[in-house]
Amino acid sequence: MTYFNVGEIVNTHGIRGEVKVLATTDFAAERFAPGEILYVKQGSQKPVKLTVKSHRQHKQFDLLTFEEITNINEAEQYKGSQLQVTEQQQTPLEDGDYYYRQIIGLEVYSLEDELLGKISEVMETGANDVWVVRRPNGKEVLLPAIKDVIQKVDLDKQRVIVDWLEGLDEQ
C-alpha cells in the first residue's frame, strides 16, 4: 500500500495525549476531521492506524487527539513521526491541478522541444506556485506556474511543455 504525508507530529500538547501537528496538506480541515483515519509512520516500521478524535487550530499548528492515544506517555513515542493517508484517501483534484509529488521530477521542455531542465521543487507564493527548474548546467531557474507559461503537463511522458520567457535564464 502507498502512503502520503499529510503532516508531522512535532510535539505533544498537554497531558491527555494531544499532539501538535505541522500540516503538509492543503486539506487539513478534511484530513484532520473527527472520525478520519490517519497512519503514523516511524522509521521502517509498518504504519500504525489512528482515528482522529478531535481537531483544533492553535497558531500555525493543528492540535489533534486520537481514539488510540489517551495520555502524554503514549503520545511521546510519535514525536517527529509523519502522519499519512493512503492513496485511496487522497482528495481527487480538478483537471489541471496536480499534487506536488506529481510535478517534482518532471522534465521541462520548450515549445521547440528543447530540454530545459527538471523540476526539483514547488514553492508556494501568494499569487501562484513557482516551480524550481534545475538546468543541465546546475543552475536553478524559477518558473511561474501560470497558464501563459505552462502549456502542457503530460504525466504519462513525465514532461512539461513551457513557453520559456525571455530573460528567465539570464543572471
UniProtKB/TrEMBL annotation:
Q: Kindly give the InterPro entries that the UniProt entry links to this protein.
A: PRC_barrel-like_sf, PRC_RimM, RimM, RimM_N, RimM_N_sf, Transl_B-barrel_sf
Q: Which UniProt keywords apply?
A: Chaperone, Cytoplasm, Ribosome biogenesis, rRNA processing
SUPFAM superfamilies annotated for this entry? PRC-barrel domain, Translation proteins
Domain called RimM N-terminal: residue spans: 6-88
Q: Where in the cell is it found?
A: Cytoplasm
Which residues does the UniProt record annotate as the domain Ribosome maturation factor RimM PRC barrel? 101-168
User: Which family does the UniProt entry place this protein in?
Assistant: Belongs to the RimM family.
**Annotated function:** An accessory protein needed during the final step in the assembly of 30S ribosomal subunit, possibly for assembly of the head region. Essential for efficient processing of 16S rRNA. May be needed both before and after RbfA during the maturation of 16S rRNA. It has affinity for free ribosomal 30S subunits but not for 70S ribosomes.
On assembly, the entry states: Binds ribosomal protein uS19.
Q: What is stated about domains? A: The PRC barrel domain binds ribosomal protein uS19.
Q: What is the protein's name according to its record?
A: Ribosome maturation factor RimM
